[in-house]
Design goal:
- By secondary structure, the protein is α/β, with parallel strands linked by helices.
- It is about 50% helix and about 10% strand.
- The protein contains 13 helices and five strands.
- It has helices spanning about 1-5, 25-40, 55-65, 85-95, 105-120, 135-145, 165-170, 175-180, 195-205, 220-230, 230-250, 255-265, 270-285; strands at about 45-50, 70-75, 125-130, 155-165, 185-190.
- It has a five-stranded parallel sheet with strand order 2-3-4-1-5, sandwiched between helices.
- α6 links the parallel β3 and β4 (about 155-165).
- α10 (about 220-230) packs across α11 and α10 (about 220-230) runs parallel beside α12 (about 255-265).
- The longest helix has 17 residues, at about 105-120.
Length: about 290
């Protein structure tokens, strides 16, 4: 494939959240700093929101790789479409907490024992829930109950809720005001600017072993930025298609003309608002 032709060690623009390819724009660095601050200060609840494709999951996985096992115990729940008890089961499973009796009280009691043991050992327990906008109010209430597991001086578990902007609307419900008031650290991921988009593309090429100078010229990057509006996932989709297009023609650079052809062929539209609306809908559908 094109990897061999261009001398890449791996594909640079996959849409899977690979922490090795993490690129921290100024906004991403700020968001990561908020997450780390919330964990280190034992804030209890931390919320991160961002539009579809802005890199929430990649940032979360990068965060988790930075947490040293000697100091932290962490777990990631990425399928939050669960009942309250199912969530407890999933949390206990992720932390390898064994439970004999299969009921909510037993799960909560054993989880509390685990948290106390970790606290005594000097370790911080971090629970990350991705796509948290899909949580139901009763499950969020269950999380609030879990956050009540604490000592007189400290929170025993740090819970990160990450999701699309709808998460803010969910947390703003009147019946969830107790939980909302407990979220003391919040951050929001926004799309990248033109300069960050250029650095993002060059960074991923470098990680993949690209040695071809000016492989994505500035004019090509500008067209990618105008189309993607700085959303990493859309950048990856266009760059991947442009690479394939250039490879089939044995071009040693991805020209702005190639980018234009890829966008026109893959995302035909009659206007700017039209394609933006369709692409966002396409991403939300998980295609």
């Amino acid at each position: 494939m094109y990897c061999e032709f261009y001398g890449f060690s791996e594909k640079p623009f996959t849409i899977t959240p690979n922490p090795r390819f993490i690129f921290l724009s100024s906004n991403h660095r700020e968001a990561l700093a908020h997450l780390v601050y919330g964990i280190e200060t034992h804030a209890g609840f931390i919320a991160m929101t961002g539009e579809v494709g802005t890199g929430k999951t990649t940032l979360l996985r990068a965060l988790l790789t930075q947490l040293e096992p000697e100091k932290y115990r962490s777990a990631l729940i990425f399928n939050p479409c669960l009942s309250g008890e199912q969530l407890l089961v999933a949390i206990c499973r992720e932390f390898c907490v064994e439970v004999d009796e299969k009921n909510s009280f037993a799960y909560l009691e054993n989880l509390n024992r685990f948290l106390l043991e970790q606290h005594a050992a000097g370790r911080t327990v971090v629970l990350v829930i991705d796509e948290a906008q899909n949580l139901t109010p009763d499950v969020l209430e269950q999380l609030r109950m879990i956050s009540n597991l604490e000592t007189e001086q400290d929170k025993l578990i740090q819970i990160i809720l990450a999701g699309q902007p709808e998460l803010d609307e969910l947390l703003g419900r009147h019946d969830l005001r107790q939980l909302c008031q407990r979220i003391t650290v919040r951050c929001r991921l926004t799309p990248m600017g033109l300069d960050d988009t250029n650095e993002y593309i060059q960074h991923r090429l470098k990680i993949s072993g690209c040695r071809i100078p000016d492989f994505f010229p500035r004019r090509a990057v500008k067209k990618i930025y105008r189309f993607s509006q700085g959303i990493p996932r859309l950048i990856n989709v266009v760059c991947e298609q442009a690479l394939v297009f250039a490879w089939t023609r044995e071009n040693l650079a991805v020209s702005s003309s190639i980018v234009s052809q890829v966008i026109a062929a893959t995302y035909p539209s009659t206007g700017r608002r039209g394609w933006v609306h369709r692409i966002v809908a396409w991403l939300r559908a998980g295609k």
